[in-house]
Amino acid sequence: MLDSTVPTQGNQSDQAVPFQQLLEAQSGLILLISPHLTLIGASDAYLREAFLTREHIMGRHLFDVFPDNPNTPELTSSASLRASIERAIATRKPDKMDVMRYDIQDPGKAGGFFERYWTSTNTPVYNSQGELVCILHETKNISDDLKTKAQLEESRVKEQAALAQAEQQRLRLDRFFDQAPAACAMLEGPTFIYRVINSSYYQLFPGRELLDLPLFEALPELRHQPVYDIIHEVYKTGVTYEGKEVLIPVARYEGQPAEDIYWNFIYQALLDAEGKVNGILIFALDVTAFVAARQQVESSAASLHSMNLGLEEVIKRRTFELEQAQAEAERQSKRLQSLFMSAPAAICILNGSDLVYELVNPAYAAFFPERQLLGKPILKALPEIEGNPVYKTFRDVYETGRTHEEKEMYIPFARPDGEMEDRYFRYILQARYNEQNQIDGVVVFALEVTEQVQARKAVEASEQQLQKANKEFGIANQQLIYINKDLDNFIYTASHDLKAPISNIEMLMSELLFELSEGSLANPEVRRIFNMIQGSVFRFRKTIASLTEISKLQKEELNRQEHVVVTEVVREVELDLEKMIAEYGAQIETDVADCATMAFSEKNLRSILYNLLSNGIKYSHPDRKPQVKVSCGQVNGFQVLQVKDNGLGLAPAQKNKLFTMFKRFHDHVEGSGVGLYMVKRIVENAGGRIEVESELGVGTTFSVYFSK
C-alpha cells in the first residue's frame, strides 16, 4: 500500500528536506521515514533515547533498525507501527497510536532488549503536487510514567490489603480480648478511664459501674492501697509491673463492704504513635481460693508443730512422726506456691478442625518443656489425651461453640523418661470465631492445680493424723504427770530419809575422834582415812541439798514472772562470786544493753547466771586467766542471753551429755553435777531453750533463749 503513493527517485531528491539541521536540533523524539520505510532523519534526542547513532540508521529500513523482541513473541510491535503508518497515508491525516510496548535493543548486550512503552503519532508529509514525501514519526517514552503508575497501583493494592488484614486482625483481637477467660481492661489517660472491659473483668465486679469512669472513681477503695502508687509508677515510667498473690480488699457490689481478695495481676503501659504512655492494660486473676488452700496447709502444719512443744523423751517417736507430716505439708505448700509464682495465665490458641497449635504463651509452654507444640495438631503434640475425656471437650467446643469449664480435670501425661505422671488441670475452653462469625479455632485458658490437689489431700491426711495425735498426746501427758509425781516423791523421800543416816555418821565420826588417842590421830594414814570419810560425808550432804533444790524446782509456779533489770542481776551474781573471781584472777565483761529488762523470775535468772558464770571461772584453762563475756540480744522473737568463756571446752561426744543430772567431765573442780541440769529445766519450764557451742581447749558459749 505504501509503494503505490511513493514518488520517483528523482522526485524524492527534488523534495529533499531543506531543514535537516532544524530537525536534528528538535527536543522531541522525532524520526523521518521515507515512503519506502527507510530512515532519512532523526532528532538528536531520539538517537539518545534509543541508544543509536545517525550513521547506524540513515538509509536503513525502519524494521531492520527496530526489530521485534524475539523474547516476547506474543507482542506484534512492528505490525502495529506499520498499520498506523498505513492508516495515516490512507487518510492523509496524522494517526495517533495508543500506548504501545516496543522494546529497543541493548547496545551493550548481544540479543538483549530494553523494555519500553511509547505514545506515538505518525503524520504523512506531502509536497505541493500532493505527492507523499515522508512520514513524520513523533513519539514519547512513557516507560517510567507507566512504571510509576504501576508501582502506585501496586502500593495502593498492598495498602488496601494491609488495611483489610489490619481490620481483620483488629476484629480478631477484639474477639480474643472479649472472649479471654482472664479479666482484661484498658485504661486511658493519666486518670485511668475505663475504655475497654472484657466480660471476665465485668464478672469480677458484677454490681458496679466501670465503663468511661476513672479507675479510682469507679473503685474508690483502691485509692489508699498500694496499687494506687504502683499504677501511677507504671504510667510514669512505662515499666510493666507484675503482682503475685497481692491482697487487695475491694467490693464486688456498689455500697457493699470490701472483701479480702488475693490477686495475680499485670499492669502494662499502652503507647501512642510517638511511643509515649497514654494508658494502662490490666490483666487480673482472682487467686483467693488458691491462697486460702495454701494457708490452710500452713495452719495445719503450725498446729502440728505446736503440739510438739513441751513433750519429753517418752513421746519422741510420736513427735518425729508429726514432724514428718509437717515437713510433707510444707513441701506440698512450697510446690503449690511455685505454681502461683508462675505466669498469671497459661493461654494457647488451637486453629482449624485439627486443632493445630497456632499460639502458645510461655506459661502454657512451661507445662510441657520437652515438647514442640507450635504448628502441631494437639493429638500429635499431646498423644496421651486421645483417650482422655479432655479431648472430647476440645471437640465439643469446636463443633458446638459452647464454652466448657473444668475445675479439676485428671490428665496423666508422659514424662521425658516415658513414665506416666498424674496431673490435674483447671481450664476454660472457648470457641474462636473468624470475621464471618464461623468457628475457626479454640482458645484455651489453663492452670495446673496438681499441687493444690496434693496439698488438699495432705491437709486431709494431716487432720486425721492430728486427731490421732491429740488422743495419744493426752495419754502421754497423763503418763508424764504420774512420772513427775513419782519423781517428786522419790526425790523428796530420798533427800529426807538420807539426812538422818548422814547425821548419824557425822556423830559417830565425832565420837571416834574423841575416843582415838593422840598417837593414833598423829598417824598419817589414820588422818588420811579420816579426811576421806569427812570428804565423802560433805559430798553426800551436797548431793542431798541438790536433790532438795531439784524437788523445789519441780513444784515452782512456772508462769510466775516479773520485770527484771538484767544488769542488776549480773552485778549481784558478780558480788556473790567476788571471792572466786579474785582467786582465779578472772575478767568479767558485760554487754546487755539490748536486753535492759526481761520478763522472768528474778530468782531463776540469778540461778542461771550464777551457774554459767561460776562454771566459766571454775573450768578455766591452766595456761590462761579466765575471761567470761556476758551479752544479750534479740533473735527471732527471743531474748538471747550468752555466756562465753575461754576455758577447757568440751569434745563433741561430751556435749550430748552436758545437761545430764550428776554428770561431770572434770574431777579436779568441786561440784555436784546438777547445776546445768537445773539451768536447762528452769529455761525449758519457762518455754525457752539453751544451746551450747564448745571447742576442746578453746572455750564454751552457752546461749539461753527466753520467750518475750
Automatic annotation (TrEMBL):
CDD domains recorded: HisKA
Enumerate the UniProt keywords alphabetically: Coiled coil, Kinase, Phosphoprotein, Transferase
Spell out where the chain crosses the membrane.
none
User: Among its keywords, does the record have Kinase?
Assistant: yes
Organism, by scientific name, is Pontibacter amylolyticus
SMART domains cross-referenced by the UniProt entry: HATPase_c (SM00387), PAS (SM00091)
State the PROSITE patterns in the record.
Answer: HIS_KIN
Reaction(s) catalyzed by this protein? ATP + protein L-histidine = ADP + protein N-phospho-L-histidine
List the PANTHER family hit by this protein, alphabetically: PAC DOMAIN-CONTAINING PROTEIN (PTHR43304:SF1), PHYTOCHROME-LIKE PROTEIN CPH1 (PTHR43304)
Give the EC number: 2.7.13.3
Task: Give all residue intervals belonging to the Histidine kinase domain.
Answer: 493-708
Matching InterPro entries, A to Z?
Answer: HATPase_C_sf (IPR036890), HATPase_dom (IPR003594), His_kinase_dom (IPR005467), HisK_dim/P_dom (IPR003661), HisK_dim/P_sf (IPR036097), PAS (IPR000014), PAS-like_dom_sf (IPR035965), PAS_4 (IPR013656)
Q: Which Pfam families match?
A: HATPase_c, PAS_4
Q: Which residues form a coiled coil?
A: 452-479
Q: What is this protein called?
A: histidine kinase
